[in-house]
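Tutorial handout. Part one gives the primary structure; part two gives the three-dimensional structure as tokens.
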Amino acid sequence: MNSLQKLSHLDTLAFSWCLQLPKARLIAKISRQISRLGDGFLYLAVGVLLALFEPVDGSAFLTVGLLAFAFELPLYLILKRTIKRDRPFVVLQAHQAFIQPADRFSFPSGHASAAFVFVTVLAFFYPALLVLGYLFAVLVGAARIMLGVHFPADILAGALLGSGCAVLALRLCGYA
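Part two.
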């Protein structure tokens, strides 16, 4: 077994372990609501509200955030369409998804990527929200696993992609 196969095996074991937790169905119901928070509307609403009502950093937050998402979205789509990793419920017949995902492939997680773009930019401009923000992003990622639509590595890849795009946008705008 080569290194990639070993990682895939560990990823599958971690996914299966998560879905076998006690009260996994209850957790999936809660996860559905958390996942909806990561659909994207919240990020835009917060950005616009901050730009309108927070005079110190609100406009900069929105500008950097929009630039970060302008990098993240095409990269996410290119990776997803190039790698074409099937979702867990397709690969593992014993597991079912608790929601119908928007597309067929799972790597990287778009929800995790977007959550980490948002939170990385948020934490830069509003450091007091760092812990709460990253907790939110981790919960969005974990929710996608508990809903049966992503492996843990999909979430990790999304987190790295989103954080990287946010840092790039911050640097290009002269902040980092």
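Part three, for discussion. Residues 52 and 105 are 37 Å apart (CA to CA). The chain is about 75% helix and 0% strand.
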